[in-house]
Amino acid sequence: MKLDIYQVDAFSQSVFGGNPAAVCPLTEWLSDEQLQNIAAENNLSETAYFMPRDGFYELRWFTPEVEVDLCGHATLAAAWVLIHQLPDAPEVLRFATRSGELRVTRNGNELALDFPAKQPQPCAPPDGMLSALGIEQADVFSTDDYIVLLEDEAQVAALKPDFARLKGLPKRGIAVTAKSARFDFVSRWFGPNVGVNEDPVTGSAHTSLAPFWAERLGKSQLTAEQGGTRRGQLRCELKGDRVIISGHAVLYLQGTIYL
Question: Which of 21, 114, 152, 223 is deepest in the core (most CB within 10 A)?
Fold first, then answer.
């Protein structure tokens, strides 16, 4: 069996930026074991698989270790492949996922993801989390991830977490964020629980980060940058209970998987 595979750098206008995702178009679903093995072999933070079905595209995402409920950058990458590599892609792409229906719309040279918004709530940090991040004290909030608020974006850039100590916390991951001089906010995201120590750009985390910062800054349209060594840029717009997350994507490679 031969499968097409694309690697797309999402939330970037040039290769070697943003967050790389593998994308595999399918005509029928492989076994979960095969899907997971391909993702592990790719060894990227996410591999996305999609298959057409009755006006939708069924879409699933896998890290090298687990299937996840929501992934922004791999959704952006999958939409880019549909629009640029496959014939007759619709103007609005509708994806059926474990997180419900997700839509991606072309907006000039950008792609806009329409995701459900999530409002973080204050919480006590789990024992050892802040020290594992190298932080003495910070306000912490709870959503799908822990959100750790720092006073200075330089603190975010300087973080060197102990990933072994972060693994096993009772959330998907940890987003550390601060107000920025060049953007509205910056962040980094750590997810050893799902086999991704640091994700360069995590679209799904911005379903919480955008409402979090919209409330603090008093604005519904926000610019953001995420990452440590490798970084990507996003635009977020809060619309009621939805977040529109926009960004660019660029193709890095195209090839064939042999099974």
Answer: 21
